[in-house]
Write a structure and sequence with these properties.
This is Type IV pilus modification protein PilV. InterPro entries: N_methyl_site, Pilus_4_PilV, Tt1218-like_dom. Strands 1-2-3 form a three-stranded antiparallel sheet, covered by helices on one side. The relative contact order is 0.15. The chain is α+β, with helices and mostly antiparallel strands and 135 residues long. The protein has helices at 8-60, 81-96, and strands at residues 101-107, 110-119, 125-134. The longest helix is centred in the first third of the chain and has 53 residues, at 8-60. It is rod-shaped, with a radius of gyration of 27 Å. The mean pLDDT is 90.
């Protein structure tokens, strides 16, 4: 009479569990990467919207276009509608983006709005977008 097999089904179960574990680790890694890229895309969308907001503010006050000039990361100085718009915009950038800051460069009727923030997916990596418009 043949000897019954002992432990074969246990070994098959352990191998199946190992294969399943490796597959689940791969899925978790993909999910983590997906969340990180979605967050980066969200911040880029926010930055684009913020830059467009400043361009809209400048278009709404065309007589004071030159007053909207602002270096990236500098403090808003002055009074009036332009300074108020800049202050609100800088505060919005700081609250919506990690280390968010922005600047406006004006050359005649050409306006260049820059928004800069820190990308959390790569520590120390700064991202930036620029929108250019002719007024």
């Amino acid at each position: 009479m043949p000897k019954p097999q002992c432990g074969v089904s246990l070994l098959e179960s352990l191998i199946a569990l190992l294969v399943l574990s490796i597959g689940l680790l791969g899925v978790v890694g993909l999910q983590t990467q997906s969340l990180m890229h979605n967050r980066a895309a969200y911040f880029e969308t926010q930055a684009t919207n913020m830059a467009q907001d400043m361009l809209d503010r400048i278009r709404a006050n065309p007589d004071q276009t030159a007053a909207y000039a602002l270096s990236v990361g500098s403090t808003v100085l002055g009074n009036g509608l332009a300074a108020n718009d800049q202050s609100e915009w800088v505060e919005d950038l700081a609250s919506a983006l990690p280390d968010g800051e922005g600047g406006v460069a004006i050359n005649n009727r050409r306006v260049n709005v820059t928004v800069r923030w820190t990308d959390a997916s790569a520590p120390g990596n700064t991202r930036q977008i620029q929108l250019v418009s002719e007024l």
